[in-house]
Amino acid sequence: MLSNYRKRFYYYTKSQKRGLFFLVLLVIGIQLYIYYPRSSDQYIVDQYSTLFNDEYQKQISLLDSINTIAIAKRDTIYPFNPNFITDYRGFVLGMSTAEIDRLLSFRKENKYVNSAKEFQQITQVSDEWLKTYSAYFKFPDWVNNPKVKREYVDYSKPKVEVPIVAICINSATLEDLQKVRGIGPYYADKIMKEREKYGGFVSIQQLKFVYGLSEEVVNELYRHFKVMNAPTVTTLNINEASINQLKELPYMNYYIAREVVKHRSMNGDFVNKEGLLQIEKFPIDKIDIISLYLRFTN
């Protein structure tokens, strides 16, 4: 019997078979829809509700944030130079047409307002307007901090130098020494210690032997100081003095004193300071100063 039904099925045309197949599918679909109506509809509603709520709330929050920023930016007033207020800017700030025209007429004369008070005088804005917006006025730095006008110096005229009145180096104070260009507290103190070491300077040339002073600074010292009151010096007889006595003299030491005594014993007494030039390693540059502490005759 099954074979009879199968044979009958083969008698249908291809289009009839296809229509029958889709009819069966349609019947099955309708049955499923009728069987599961509530569950499927509720699922769609739940999915749509969840999607709508989450995305909608995000979009609403984003739009609110953008709107808040836009409003704040619109209402924010940044510092500005009132000289360059335009028609539109003045209208936004609440200025009347007449007030704006007064400012623009003033600016056409290539003039500038340099204070809030002057702005009010030109534009005739109200005190209330000025109180509200003058805090945002920003003028150039040269208006608020004008440069000090320098006194004109005519360099074409020859400079008249004030004559220097020299003072005694042995009575000079630290303040006196520091008045010389190139002498600060450090070198002033060194000069004072050198003077104290020798009991006073017997020659102004002694300044050039203060360690660290340049030739230019020493020449400046020569211009400002002289030896007017030389210390009392007890001269030492070079032809009778011992090594220990000679080594105590300024700029002398044991080895030089020994060579002086040795030369004296081998060549006889010294007649003058030139005889010291024959001694090896004698400080020739200090010979004039050392000789002031010596006596060559009895």
TrEMBL record:
Cite the SUPFAM superfamilies for this sequence: RuvA domain 2-like (SSF47781)
Query: What are the alphabetically sorted keywords of the record?
Result: Membrane, Transmembrane, Transmembrane helix
Q: Name one Pfam family in it.
A: HHH_3
Among Gene3D superfamilies, the record links this protein to: AF1531-like domain
- Which ranges does the record mark as transmembrane? 20-36
Q: Which InterPro entries match?
A: Endo/Exo/Phosphatase_dom_1, RuvA_2-like
Protein name per its UniProtKB record: Competence protein ComEA helix-hairpin-helix repeat region
Protein species of origin: Myroides profundi
